[in-house]
Amino acid sequence: MRSLGLLTLLAACSAEPEAEPVNGTANAAMPVRPGALNLSAEQMAWIGVRFAAAETATEIAIGTVPVTVAPPPNARVAVAAIIPGVVTRTLVVEGDSVRAGQPLAVVAARELLTLGAGVEQASARVAVARANDGRLGQLAREGIIAGARADEARAALREAQAELNEQRRIVAMVNGSPASGTYTLTAPIAGRVTSTAIQTGSPVDGTTAAYVIDAASRYELTAQLPERLIGQIRPGMAVQMGDGVRGTVSSVGAVVDPQTRSAVLRAAIPAAPGIVSGRSTSATLLGPAPMGAVIVPAGAVIDIDGRPTIFVRTDKGVAARTVEAGEKAGDRAVIFKGLRAGERVATSGTSELKSLAGQN
Q1: Which of 180, 215, 250 is the last residue of a domain?
Q2: Per-residue pLDDT band at 360 (split at 50, 70, 90)
Q3: DSSP 8-state class, residue 21
Q4: How high is the pLDDT of residue 16?
Q5: 105 near 174, Cβ under 8 Å?
Q6: Which of helix, strand or coil describes residue 258?
Q7: Same domain, 127 and 188
Q8: 67 — alpha (psi -120 to 50), left (phi > 0) or beta?
Q9: Would you call 233 helix, strand, or coil by DSSP?
Q10: Tens digits of residue pLDDT in 64-91
């Protein structure tokens, strides 16, 4: 039924040369495909033609390269057991997202009991030193003893207090609970647990990274930049992945590998759905657009007789027009010549229009 309708529509529309653009100089360098299709709005709606306006381009795709997603060097941390012990409880597994300070595992350690006893002893010494300081200080003020003895008592109090603070600092640093003889491993940053090396009942010490956490807020793309693009790509330029995630080129290697004839490119990208460390994909490198270039939806550009072509809205319908197109970036394509900003182009129903144009 649809093919019959298309034939009927074909019989109803006629082709005529496309009128010159209002600004004749804008497209003078590009050939214009002869033949405009006289179609009413109802006919175009029937075959599913929709339009979008061409927009002034600010950047263009320079090239597409394969990339690997990884966390940047300063966004990966290892969580080690500071005090040797035995894991009594694990609270996260590989792949879990964690927040900064979130408990990861509980470790039983005999040294925590020793630390607890040391805290109690230091607290007792502070209490004695404080009482002695108060008593001798009062006697010194009354002139009963020399002031030097009061100064010695004050120094002894400060020394005892410093020892107690050090004991408490060690306990706090490992999130320890001296009463139970355990301490808790916690996440130093927010991110995703990418590696676990412990399980309940296993011994741990400071030589093993119990967990590895990658920061979830940013990632790094690593690519081999072809030699032909090295001079065109600079730090600060934009990079875009196929799913629309955009980042910024952070560095371009200055040395060309003699085997691959490429240099290492690195780019920073934010976290987004589908961005997973270790994933291999591709990314488009973007640079400043030349004057006069416009952007259209990628679906607007089709191939007719081996030439990039678009269908432009006219007063009587549409007209096929040959253009000079650049590389597509995601769902958008850049047009260097043959189209002006503001002109409306067909973004759907282009296959039907191509069939009609081929019959006229």
Answers
A1: 215
A2: low
A3: P
A4: 47
A5: no
A6: coil
A7: yes
A8: beta
A9: coil
A10: 899 999 877 777 888 888 888 899 999 9
3-state secondary structure of 191: strand
The closest of 243, 344, 314, 327 to 285, measured between CA atoms, is 327
Q: Is 251 exposed, middle or buried (0-12, 13-18, 19+ CB in 10 A)?
A: middle
The span from the CA of 31 to the CA of 246, in Å, is: 35
Are 42 and 99 in a shared domain? no
Last residue of a domain, one of 215, 243, 265: 215
Q: Quick: pLDDT tens for 116-159.
A: 787 888 888 889 888 888 888 888 888 888 888 888 888 888 98
Residue 34 has pLDDT above 70, yes or no: no
Which of 191, 206, 203 lies closest to 77 in space, CA to CA?
191
Average pLDDT over residues 282-292: 88
Q: Exposure of 226 by Cβ count < 10 A (0-12 exposed, 13-18 middle, 19+ buried)?
A: middle
pLDDT tens string 54-65: 999 888 888 889
296 vs 143, more confident: 296
* C-alpha span between 332 and 300 (Å, rounded): 9
When pLDDT is cut at 50, 70 and 90, the band that residue 17 belongs to is very low
CATH number at residue 119: 2.40.50.100
Q: Is residue 221 part of a domain?
A: no
Q: How far apart are the first and last CA of the chain?
A: 21
Token couple for 182: 């355990």
**DSSP conformation class of 329:** B
Give the closest residue to 213 by CA, choosing from 297, 99, 337, 107: 99
State how beta strands 262-270 and 246-252 pair: antiparallel
Whether 42 shows a pLDDT value over 50: the answer reads: yes
- Is residue 217 classed exposed, middle or buried when 0-12, 13-18 and 19+ CB atoms within 10 A define those classes? exposed
Domain coverage including residue 312: 2-58+291-359
User: Tell me, what DSSP letter sits at residue 338?
Assistant: S
Q: What is the CATH number of the domain that holds 46?
A: 2.40.420.20
